[in-house]
Amino acid sequence: MNINFKKIEEKWQKRWEEAEIFNANPDNREKFFITAAFPYLNGVLHAGHLRTFTIPEVMARYQRMKDKNVLWTFGYHVTGTPILGLAELIKKKDEKTIWAYTNLHKVPKEDLLNLTTPEKIVEYFSKKAEEAFKKAGFSLDWRRQFTTNDEEFKKFIIWQFHKLKEKGLIVKGSHPVRYCPSCDNPVEDHDLLEGEDSTIVEYILIKFKMGDIYLPAATLRPETVFGVVNLWVNPNEDYVKVKVYDEEKKSEEIWILSKKAMNKLIHQNKKFEILEEFKGEKLVNLRAINPITNKEVPILPAEFVKTTVGTGIVMSVPAHAPYDYIALKDLNKLDEVGIIPLIKVPGYSEYPAKDVVEKYKIKSQKDVENLEKATKEVYKAEFHKGVLNENCKEYAGYKVREIKDKLTNDLIKKGYAEVMYEFSVERVRCRCGAECVVKLVKDQWFIKYSDKKWKELAHKCVDRMNFIPENYKKIFHEMIDWMKDKACVRRRGLGTKFPFEDGWIIESLSDSTIYPAYYTIVKYIKEHNIKAEQLTNELFDYIFLGKGDIEEIAKTTNIDKEVIENMRNEFIYYYPVDWRCSAKDLVPNHLTFYIFNHVAIFPEEFWPRGIVVNGYVTIENQKLSKSKGPLLPILEVVEKYGADVGRFYIATAAEIPQDADIKFSTLEKTKQFLERFYLLAKEIIDMKDNKESYIDKWLLSRINLHIKEYKNYMDNFELRKAGILIYEFLEDLRWYKRRGGNNKEILIKFIETLTLLLAPFTPHICEEIWEMLGKEGFVSLAKLPEVGEIDEEILKGEEYLKRLIEDIKEIIEVAKIKPNKIYIYTAEDWKCEVCEIVNKNRDKNVREIMKEIMKDERFRKKGKEISKLLNTIIKINAIPLDEEKILSQNKEFLEKEFNAEIVINGEDKGNKKRFAIPMKPAIYIE
């Protein structure tokens, strides 16, 4: 039978929309507010979006079926430069862009060539996104939809920025930012083609002296300067001797550094005059003075020196840097230059680099993979457990993790060091195609995420929050500690005008931090046709903070007092957000900003409660790419496989923290599973017989056990486990039928339960089956089934039979025989007594249980045998069962299974009976 999934989907999507069943309004029920980071509309929604959005979608439906008042809705992110850049590329008819959007995003060429303005792009892709969400069956409250370029939303952002500035958290100054020289703007993750995850790293430049010339060596670990035995340069790379003028200090010096480093430092308050250009080999064997120790050290060649990172001058500390240790060994210079230990680390000798080089059996600099492992191991151990030794002079006794700031400040004050800013990755490229730089921007506006008191509030919030997976609590604490001031405005792009200085626009990650609060009120703005000019800061103060005189606010805004009160009450009812869902790429930026900005603006009772972080998506092991592919738009999944298939597959393809790899063959199998489920439901509904049997009670117990497990999994966002459990339902049905079960009443209960549990994942087909079952209303609003009686004994009994059948089959297969007679022996009585003692003492450890058993003199005589038996009973989770009774009741069934005579506890053939233990009978086949 060919099932028309598309027709079923259209039918129920229409009914949901007509009945407006997903529109959320405050009432007396417990609320549940779940959100996801809204999508950026510079293309169609794809498989990555499908995963990130299906997780909260499934949870929203599940919580609705727990009779909670669920608010689940969406907005669209459109601010920043990517959409502007895309419009320009389309206007130019850029070949790569045309190819990507026609082939990957599936935009007809005639439509694409018309998208020459940001407004047209937003309109086109917002309609496509809405179509994708609706066709995928998302249970959204569509009244609350908006884009970040809506004039009304911009007023909400202006209010947010006023709140931050009032607290001194919006500041103007000179700070390092990721910068595109071509666009002449700071850039954020959304603006980048490459290096989206890049951060700005602070290098310390230790200024080694060679006469009146400085060689600035870049390091992330200034404490290691006390152990420098030589400097490294790359002999094959370009270096320059330059006159460097520091604009801030008004000072002039002569430096030698790589040419690439000079080109980067131009953007960091320095002007250069090139005096000489040469290859690094010219510096080899010259000597320089360590400004901290006054020790003269040689300059040596090393091809591992990257002139794209730091200055191309690298300090060599072989006691603590595996690369330095092995490079000096390669040059046979280790004995000549010496080795100076600096850090005491538990578990290592005074030369940790030597220890790990030997541990990983590293023979040369070419073993980069093991050198990287060794370096990470040493640096991690030293950072967390290391203490500086006496070679570090006045800093001896300091912990490594506590010394960097103090030592850096001291070195800078003495004129021995400077700061250089660098990307955490080698290549960062703007969407315009230009290479980005770290720039010290003057008179730039920043959000002061470095503020210590603000960080303390953010930490307090994280301590109270729930995280899935749990280890992200620690990660968010680290993100908060790491967070530095962030540029919050730019000169071009879509967005909200910066309220404190003309010519600036609020950048795209700064306008998307607390917008879930806007979801609670936007329906009123739309319903009452409230204009942007009516949305004053005083109005938002009242709605979100409870401040101000409502009579005065109603008068000045010309908004009805009752509407304002409703907005305030709706915010109070739904806030805070229970769960915020996003992929892991937003952890170091958006999700951390989300915490910071909430704690800065809202009272504690409205702080976020939980964050869910999911892994990425690949397609047949290939990384998703909007410009190169593969992409797999949501609409394509829905069209080819069906909404329910795509939803169920993507939600259960991997546990939430893990990356999910989409495989088309498995998508097909998911489709076949849902087809089987539908046909099975139809078959059961059309049944005539109602034959009762012993096995009915087992199936009911299994159903109730599954309901219990399902609720536990779903409450903990373990969607994959819930999905596997749903597959187990059909395995249970197969066993039930195999055991002769055919009770329509029980089978209807089975289908009804499975329909309810599947409904959050596959709502369309479940609505159809719910209707076929003759149920009133929507399954989407039905209550989840309660957990009924679970008969543990009957469950264990059937498990016992299944295990026995598998054991017999294994013996037959190994022995390659056709059985005539099968002898089954149950455990001796004393073994069953031991099993009873074990089960009565489940709360105790093995030693305590053994002590309990040995109170009986009979058992003391069997010491070794008892010990072995005890461990086996615990391992197989055996419980006391009347095995002989189970076997006798099912003798006919077993004989039918194996077409052989079954003998229970008969003649002890082959002396097998002695091997029987509780729930694992001995078997002899002839």
Write the layout of secondary structure elements.
Layout lengths: L4 H15 L11 E6 L10 H18 L4 E3 L10 H10 L3 H9 L5 H4 L5 H18 L15 H16 L3 E11 L4 E2 L5 E3 L5 E11 L2 E7 L10 E4 L4 E9 L4 E8 H7 L4 E10 L7 E3 L6 E6 L12 E3 L5 H9 L3 H4 L5 E2 L7 H8 L8 H18 L1 E2 L11 H14 L3 E7 L5 E2 L6 E11 L4 H13 L1 E3 L3 H11 L3 E2 L1 E2 L14 E2 L9 H4 L2 H6 L9 H9 L4 H8 L3 H14 L4 E5 L3 H15 L8 E5 L2 E3 L2 E2 L10 H8 L1 H10 L7 E3 L1 H22 L9 H21 L3 H20 L5 H15 L4 H10 L19 H24 L5 E5 L3 H12 L5 H8 L3 H4 L2 H13 L7 H7 L1 H8 L2 E4 L17 E4 L1
Parallel strand pairs: 1-2, 1-24, 7-10, 8-13, 20-25, 24-25, 26-28, 29-30
Antiparallel strand pairs: 3-4, 3-19, 5-18, 6-7, 6-17, 8-14, 9-10, 9-11, 12-13, 15-16, 19-21, 22-23, 26-27, 29-31
Helix pairs in contact: 1-28, 2-23, 9-11, 11-12, 14-15, 14-21, 18-20, 22-23, 23-24, 24-27, 25-26, 25-27, 25-29, 27-28, 30-33
**Helical region count?**
35
Quantity of strands, as a count: 31
- Describe the largest sheet: 6 strands, mixed
What percent strand?
15-25%
By helix and strand content, what is the structural category?
alpha/beta
Helix content: 40-55%
pLDDT averaged residue by residue = 94
